[in-house]
Write a structure and sequence with these properties.
With 317 residues, the chain is of the alpha+beta class. Helices cover 53% and strands 15% of the residues. The protein has a four-stranded antiparallel β-sheet, with helices on both faces. The chain has a three-stranded antiparallel β-sheet with strand order 2-1-7.
């Protein structure tokens, strides 16, 4: 289930009108940053709030925009902290792709969107952070959706008996990960471009998972990990489409990630049919229509945020 596309589409639908609005009223001199709220030791400043209020105004929201902006940013920070604790990372490349796609859908170049964001007092950085949180949170919701909706083994067995004992089948992938490590402190555009070039060069020479380590021997800051077996329904969302289109013994395209630049290789692929597959398949079938899934996802998100808020330490200054 791809929550990313649905959630981003819903979010962006509310901002399409921005291309027709005047932005002159949002320009002005920048204010010095002053901390207004602290969420689990993470600050939210008056500048952050002003950026979000400008974003809300561009969406033609009514009411107290500063209050709405602050509330949104508190919730957003709760999500960011939870994403970090869960190891959910949205790469810069994914964000840039989504940002460029938003510009294209609104018949603008990236440069024109940047200009609009700056003139409106939103800034590209603020909007990209917003995109990153939406994408990462959708993954968190997807994980909880699957865990809460998982059918028990006993129910799966009963379902199979009802179907005459027939078990569903799916593909099982054996994967390998190759990471060209880039420390967070070194993630400049030039460094990332260099590592991307090195990763692509190795990818072009890639012959098999058995020879990867010998091919990378002597290369600086390159890590090879055997990831084991993964059912198709459990493939990482950010890699799923590529992996399904990748032949056995071949690597995916490279991606920027929180670790640096990496690609995955499909070492083996086979069709499997067992109780574990049945449990997962029947659980996914039971999620209902897209409308039902979206409603369920929204309910889970609200419940999730409420739990985070109850446990959080939020200080208004």
């Amino acid at each position: 289930m791809n929550f990313n596309k649905r959630i981003l589409a819903a979010v962006f639908a509310g901002t399409v009108a921005m291309t027709a609005l005047s932005v002159t009223e949002f320009t002005g001199t920048a204010k010095a940053a002053e901390i207004k709220v602290i969420v689990n030791s993470n600050p939210i400043t008056n500048v952050d709030i002003a950026n979000r209020a400008a974003f809300l105004k561009l969406q033609r929201r009514g009411g107290n925009l500063n209050k709405q902006a602050q509330d949104e940013l508190v919730e957003e920070m709760l999500k960011r902290v939870e994403m970090k604790s869960r190891g959910i990372v949205v790469s810069d490349q994914e964000v840039e792709t989504a940002y460029a796609g938003f510009a294209s859908r609104n018949k603008m170049s990236v440069a024109q969107l940047n200009q609009l964001m700056n003139q409106a007092g939103i800034t590209p950085k603020h909007f990209k952070t917003f995109i990153m949180v939406q994408m990462g949170w959708s993954r968190a919701i997807g994980a909880r959706f699957r865990s809460e909706g998982m059918m028990s083994e006993q129910d799966a067995v009963q379902r199979m008996l009802k179907d005459g004992g027939k078990k569903p089948s799916t593909s099982e992938y054996t994967l390998q990960q190759v990471i060209f490590v880039v420390p967070a402190a070194s993630r400049s555009a030039g460094t990332m471009a260099k590592r991307r070039s090195e990763a692509n060069a190795l990818r072009n020479r890639f012959s098999s998972c058995e020879t990867t380590r010998s091919q990378t021997k002597g290369m600086l800051d390159v890590t090879v990990r055997d990831l084991g077996k993964h059912l198709e329904l459990q493939l990482p969302p950010e890699w799923s489409k590529q992996l399904k289109a990748t032949a056995v013994g071949r690597p995916t395209a490279v991606q920027d990630t929180d670790k640096g630049v990496e690609f995955l290789a499909v070492c083996a692929k086979r069709t499997v049919s067992d109780d574990r597959v049945a449990q997962l398949t029947f659980s996914m079938e039971g999620t209902g229509s897209n409308a039902d899934q979206e409603k369920k996802a929204e309910e889970i998100s609200k419940k999730y945020v409420k739990e985070l808020r109850e446990k959080a330490k939020i200080v208004n200054r």
